[in-house]
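Technical appendix A lists one of the benchmark inputs used to test multi-chain prediction within the project. The record comprises two sequence entries:
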Amino acid sequence: MSGSRLGGVGAWIQGAWGRGALAFLWMAVLSGVALAPFWRGGQARESLELLDGGLPWGWWIRGLHVWSAEGALVCTLLHSLDIVARRGEGRIPPGAWTRSVLLLPAMVAAMASGFLMRGDASARAAREVLRGVLATIPALGEFLATMLLGTDGDLTVVGLQHAGLWTLVLVVVTPEHARRTWSDGSALAFALCLSAALAGLSSRPLDGLPVDGEVLRGPWVLWGLQGLLGRLPAWTGWALPILGVGGLALLPRVRRPWARRGLLLALGLLVLAWIAGSLEVVGDGTP
Amino acid sequence: MERPSKNDDRTGVGSSGRRAFLGGAVVWAASAVAAGAIGAMVTAFRALGRRGTSAWETDGAGLDGVIGAERLGPGVLLRSTAEGPRAWSLRCPHLGCTVIRTADGFRCPCHGSRFDDQGNRLEGPAPEGLAPLPVQRVGTRWRVRTREGGA
């Protein structure tokens, strides 16, 4: 009996990251809905400045949105790590596993597009870097860059993709994966309290043109890419993430232990390279 | 009345054969429509990508005859030189970030490429120097063509 009780507690703890990810996701979606009426694609920076300084609690709701999105990504990463560490991917149907793995790039895309919607100097630079990376995709690169990032200074397309594509994918696939729409009360309360506290304690100021010696970093989820692109050709900006996500998606199909170890080692090296690229950007700022 | 089986071969074409034929025809037709739609979308997006301002104009006052005088436009640096006006794109040829002016040239704030005062590449991942842009005198104003095919 005590064994089954311990098993239940263990299962609850093991599922905590997944429930946390779902709770943070809903916090991000609901706060995003509250922010949407105030954002203007043609005057993105100005509309956020008005939100931060001219509307009561606007800065806090924006902070809540950003922190809850980051909480969702961190919980999703830890949930994936937990599953792989317990060899849980073999117990999930292959299609469900593939959809779950695709949630990771969708979440990064949602966060990156949300960052671009700031419209400040860092966001403009990140948009150009992403455009340059996408443009190297054979045949479809230019089309994808225009479809996902828009043209000129208007960010309406980016906002549409943020809310209408990436968030929609997350809102549809995550509950399907979790087999529940809402997370439990404790996870929702935890997500709300943590995001609310972080939003109150740490503001997310917009930035201006850099002076000599400063660097434009972009969103932290892309720091690794930013660092690697200083040394590697631009096409690695889409090829390496596809390799990483593809490798993770293939994991349940790799039956032989030595092959699984090899694949995990390759994925680990990719993660290490990503971390090294991130540290380089954080360090002296010039990859 | 006897119903024909799925593999009824009295007509030469069984119902499963007709279904397979119709299914194949639908798939091919849908593929053709999808290919046409994707082609149209790519063409439309390419046209959209080429849209926008193709030139930047500025008043010549303060630049005419003042060797070394500079003016910044949107993604453009215009300089008055002894040989006449010269302009460079401030778009880094690496991945397109806007470079910033430094004491001795230009620097890309994204990946650290450096360029000298004439826009020549000094170091970093940029494959080449900053692109020179054609400058045209229009009355008392200077016009910098910022895109191919622009006015």
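The interface with chain B takes residues 124-125, 128-129, 131-133, 140, 142-143, 145-147, 151-152, 209-212, 214-216, 226, 229-231, 234, 286-287 of chain A (CB under 8 Å). Confidence is low (pLDDT under 50) at residues 1-5 of chain A. Comparable benchmark entries are summarised in Table A2.
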